[in-house]
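Project outcomes to date are best conveyed with an example. Our students and postdoctoral researchers have been running inverse folding experiments weekly, and each run begins with a structure described purely in tokens. The record below, which covers 156 residues, was selected by the lab manager from last quarter's runs and is presented without edits.
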């Protein structure tokens, strides 16, 4: 089935975002693991795996629409040097991703591509959930203080 060129283009833009996210979250996970922050490692690692599955779904959809998935493009990674900065980098990345997803969803609706729209809506829901999680971590740091917060994230 040949898809609309604009849909293929926007799906590739979202794919670029997901590929970037995979790398950022995977590296943050491994930094947390190195620091002994098992809970943060697990959360970021699972996020990178979820993003990989979402990227796979986007690749399959672009191929189905007879487009060529672009796996060569990668956005700028935002890698923090401490826990607070890493959380803020992830939040900034997530917040920049939302408008792209909403634009892509609207474009799919405009061209009546409801299958692509559904894929994008699921991705948007996961990204919004992760933003909520980051906000909760930043709140906990504010309330507990960084040393107590970090101590609570050690171990499994």
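After processing, the design step wrote out the following sequence:
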């Amino acid at each position: 089935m040949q898809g609309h060129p604009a849909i293929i283009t926007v799906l590739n833009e979202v794919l670029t975002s997901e590929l970037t996210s995979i790398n950022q979250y995977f590296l943050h996970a491994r930094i947390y693991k190195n620091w002994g922050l098992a809970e943060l490692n697990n959360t970021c690692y699972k996020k990178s795996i979820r993003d990989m599955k979402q990227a796979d779904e986007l690749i399959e959809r672009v191929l189905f629409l007879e487009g060529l998935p672009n796996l060569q493009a990668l956005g700028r990674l935002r890698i923090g040097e401490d826990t607070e900065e890493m959380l803020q980098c992830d939040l900034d990345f997530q917040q920049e991703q939302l408008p792209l997803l909403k634009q892509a969803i609207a474009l799919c609706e405009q061209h009546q591509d409801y299958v692509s729209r559904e894929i994008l809506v699921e991705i948007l829901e996961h990204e919004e959930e992760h933003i909520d999680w980051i906000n909760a971590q930043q709140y906990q740091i504010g309330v507990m203080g960084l040393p107590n917060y970090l101590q609570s994230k050690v171990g499994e």
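The CA atoms of residues 9 and 67 lie 9 Å apart. Residues 5-153 form a domain with the Ferritin fold (CATH 1.20.1260.10). The training component of this project remains on track.
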